[in-house]
Design goal:
By secondary structure, the protein is of the alpha/beta class. It has helices at 27-36, 53-61, 74-86, 133-139, 146-156, 172-181, 232-238, and strands at 4-9, 14-19, 43-47, 66-70, 93-96, 112-117, 157-168, 184-193, 202-209, 216-217, 221-222. The strands form two sheets. Strands 3, 4, 5, 6, 7, 8, 9, 10 and 11 form a nine-stranded mixed beta sheet that branches.
């Protein structure tokens, strides 16, 4: 069995076990969980849940939602189930070990209100693959492409349901085009920058299934201040 580390959030309110040498979540997951903004009573689906970090943050922040996390890799889905149980959230979070391409709404007792995903950013033939399989799948489109992700979101969402994702800025045009093709109309876009002088590396995009046209470009999110500390807005995302 691989060695696990234990990390805590929100002054120890959430504990996360992760593989020390395999896939480990990044700040992207925290940013996405913050921007998803579920409503009370929402049923939420996280595609590619990894160790379960996004469902745990969202369920902690929003006690009136239920979350389904889908993970293709059994080792990670087992770890996500452990994290859910260890944080006493099994009544509100369900982890499924499934390929998103075969996912059906009946597996979640019906369509959901919100789909979130922090997917791989790189095409399968782009760049060097990480020798660690978990990390390779997290970074490259090996088991599911952007098309597969958006097609699954469309299939799982109710009409007027929301899709929120964090993605590499250089593929923004492709993301928006595929969302529109799937009739998930892009409604909000926010660029994410390391500092005030850097170009955007990531974007957070929200779309509505069957929504009308018209997109709002929000103010940029800056991650680090002049001395390299998190900005006040980012610090709030980690606050209890």
């Amino acid at each position: 069995m691989k060695e696990l580390t234990s990390d805590s959030f929100f002054n120890g309110a959430i504990r996360i076990r992760q593989d020390r040498s395999g896939y480990r979540f990044s700040i992207d997951a925290v940013l996405l969980a913050h921007h998803a903004r579920p409503r009370p009573g929402d049923r939420v689906l996280d595609l590619g849940t990894g160790c379960g970090i996004i469902p745990l943050i969202m369920a902690y922040r929003h006690p009136q939602i239920t979350v389904y996390g889908v993970e293709f890799q059994k080792v990670l889905s087992d770890l996500a189930r452990f994290n859910v149980s260890d944080n006493h959230m099994a009544e509100r979070i369900t982890i499924l070990c499934k390929d998103m391409k075969s996912l059906k709404s009946k597996m979640m007792s019906g369509l959901v209100d919100l789909v979130v995903s922090n997917p791989p950013y790189r095409r399968s033939n782009s760049g060097r693959l990480n020798p660690d399989y978990q990390r390779a799948v997290a970074r490259h489109e090996i088991t599911a492409t952007l098309f597969d992700l958006i097609a699954t979101a469309r299939r799982m969402l109710r009409t007027a349901g929301r899709f929120v994702t964090i993605y590499t800025a250089e593929r923004t045009a492709e993301l928006l085009a595929q969302m529109r093709t799937a009739r998930i109309e892009p409604k909000i876009l926010r660029s994410i920058h390391s500092n005030r002088q850097s170009e955007a590396k990531l974007v957070v995009v929200e779309g509505i299934k069957g929504g009308s046209s018209g997109i709002r470009i929000e103010s940029p999110l800056i991650l680090y201040d002049e001395v390299g500390n998190y900005t006040q807005e980012v610090k709030q995302m980690f606050a209890p």
